[in-house]
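Obj.: predict assembly geometry.
Materials: sequence records (below).
Method: joint structure prediction, all chains together.
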Amino acid sequence: MICQKDVGLWLDIGPVDQIAPGNARTLPVRGGEEIAVFHTVDNRFFALVNKCPHKQGPLSQGIVHGNVVTCPLHNWNISLKTGEALGDDEGCVPTIPLKVDAGRIYLLREAVVPNLKRKAA
Amino acid sequence: MNAPMTFDSHNGGGGIAERLVVIGNGMAGCRAVEEILARDPGRFQITIFGAEPRVNYNRIMLSPVLAGEKQFDDIVINTEAWYDENGITLISGDPVTQIDRATQTVIAQSGRVEPYDRLLIATGSDPFIIPVPGANLPGVVTFRDLDDVDKMLAAAERGGAAVVIGGGLLGLEAAHGLSLRGMKVTVVHLMPTLMERQLDEAAGWLLKAELERRGQTILTGSDTAEIMEASGHVAGVRLKDGREIPADIVVMAVGIRPATALGRSAGLDVERGIMVDDHMVTSDPAIMAVGECVQHRGACYGLVAPLWDMCRALADAACGAPSGYEGSVTSTKLKVSGIDLFSAGDFSGGDGAEDIVMRDAARGIYKRVIVKEDRLVGAVLYGDTADGSWYFDLLKKGEDVSDIREALIFGQAFASGGALADPNAAVAALSDDAEICGCNGVSKGTVVKTIAAGACSLDAVRSQCKASASCGSCTGLVESLLQLALGDDIRSGPKTVCKCTSFSHDDVRRLILEKDLRAIPQVMQELHWTTPDGCSSCRPALNYYLLCAWPGEYEDDQKSRFVNERMHANIQKDGTYSVVPRMWGGLTNPRELRAIADVVEKYDAPMVKVTGGQRLDIFGIKKEDLPAVWADLNAAGMVSGHAYGKSLRTVKTCVGSEWCRFGTQDSTGLGVKAEEMTWGSWMPHKFKIAVSGCPRNCAEATIKDFGIICVDSGYELHVGGNGGIKVRVTDLLGKVTTEEEALEVCAAFIQLYREQAHYLERTAPWIERVGLDHVKAGLFDDPDAVRKLAARFRYSQQFMQDDPWAERAAGKDAELHQHLAEVRPLEFV
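Observations (raw structure tokens):
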């Protein structure tokens, strides 16, 4: 929920219907890492840094099944919830806290722009 | 008429009682009053305002009223006598329009002013009207109260067609009612799955299939553009894709919004709903709120169960013994007779969450429970909801289910059965004459004897006694019997498609045809997939098998395609793409070369390379630039080269008799014809063709999937070559004398491969697996086989030979190429 005190804490990235279920779309961040936002077939949303921990493949382009995305480069399976590689592979990609409210997607601003605070200080 | 009706009662008796005014005569308002009366009947002098001109009724039972299963009288909760007996003043048909917090009074539409000491807002929710042209036309109704039901019943009386916008709980119940009342009903739903908030894809598909069987038309993934009008009344619905559906009534059931207007104008804290604490008190201590209009700990509820919990907490606090409401876990049941459907909790799966899926295709049952850290966290049941309440109870209590984990999916009776908690033990306990396989009438005794006689694998049991050989729903039972008899000595059967299924590729392909399966969720249901929506191995395979089985009918599932086929370009290690335009038979011309050169410069492509298949490959194109690149290439007459697909890649040629002093036939001309015939076709794996003009074989035709070598007397046809990891020289299939024959056999061979090979199996391993004799038999045993196979290939090609680049360049699937937005944070700091 966006409370008055939260304004600025969460970044509104638009309505949920701009990502079809089973797909992902990207959000380039100037001065930061590109983010992949996923919409699963059973209607959950997740955000990860758009880089596979293996060889930095764009996870946004992978096949989404359950809460897992398969990297398009070498078929690593990455958990959308934790960003961790599944199975025998090891590695982890940062997740971005995300929430859906009243049909819009919000990302935690400080996770999108990790160095925001440092620059402001 | 909505004239105010007043049931004055013997109020003013006590004088010292606090005045409680309730805004809202619905389920929440009245339940809260009942709870208060149950605790302390004399505490408040109560006045209830209701917008509807009638007593309190059970709103969730409107669906059965619409369906003709109940009458209004059946769903009344509190009669006039109840208000009377409890000294409650009911002011119905006169909605409150203003709250004056300074003077602690409410003002109604009629001008009536009522003072309060405590105020309870229970205004519920309003139906959400999608803002499309025509939304206010006569004949467009919502589904919220009895007046709406009356309007729908009047329309049904006249007959005709109804469109229900919204395939959620409410919309489907409205559609069901109208359908039973004899209307032709179409449901228009924005999302790809019905009731996507409550159901996963598999259960949503089953529901859709059942509703369609009952005569409703279900359009998922459909967005309403406009409600059409004729002579001042609704006439139909136009969708954004241009389709028009005639309608005599349109029911808008896309969702509800908390009715917060009163609270907002009174200056209470309101976000999505009126903000309340755990005691249902708003930002004004004198004002409480309850029901669908509130927001508690960030959540708004649209179901009835949370009301009961909220009202208890409210009454406890209002009567001086605060307990606190902690939010609700909700469950859903669809009130459509004959359809059993239940969902509760979190069914999104994910880490640490384990799915247990059971499907029984013969009985149309799908059950899925989700366990996390030894606790049940979610359940979706379709077809058999008998255990819904048991699962819901386990879920709410958060009980440790590790002891009954193995048998959990079989339900309460099974899981609670002590020794029966082990499924193998349960099977062991069956008598010898118990039926294992219903399709083939095989008893447990027969299966046990078959195993004892040497059948050591599922496949052997299937072939020897037919148990689980048909629909496969008893596979688990047969596996248990194998386990019991052999322990770890079970031999694994043929390789399955992936871990999601026990069926092999051949089984899946055969059953798709036998059982007339036409969609991925349908295959997963009928063939008992153990995961809700498959994985990255089976989804592309199923998509291909369906596409091959039902050309022209099956709608390609983009999200089940590997990135290259979804993006129509080849992804590279840095996430950019390479683009290969088609050059028929490896021929090109100045116009094409100029266009390619222009693209390379315009998009700053870092590299251009000549490929092994005689094409030019442009590297380093960003996904967002792809449609523009394709538009430029299209403008020069070039189409997709499908260098990215499990499809016909290239036809490589040498120059042949037109130029070469050794050439025997027009190999370039034949290559172009072959490419024109085969381009755009999806295959189990990539497929390469070459045509060499003489046995010197400059086009390297003997390491291609289909190779033609021209000789003086005609054309040698070679198959199953491969120049990849494991080089394989082709087998000679035969020799023909004309170009037409060569092309006909080429088409027939491709179709045989398309219909029989496993997904991701090149022709070389396919032929090694099945044998060249099998391929020859398939092509030549029946003298008509080549003609029939080639005809099927050409039929399929009708639907394949649209340039995917042109569609994308024209704007199709633009969201696959565009970023959501760009974040530019630094300017703001």
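Conclusions so far: Confidence is low (pLDDT under 50) at residues 1-14 of chain B.
To do: check interface contacts against the pulldown list.
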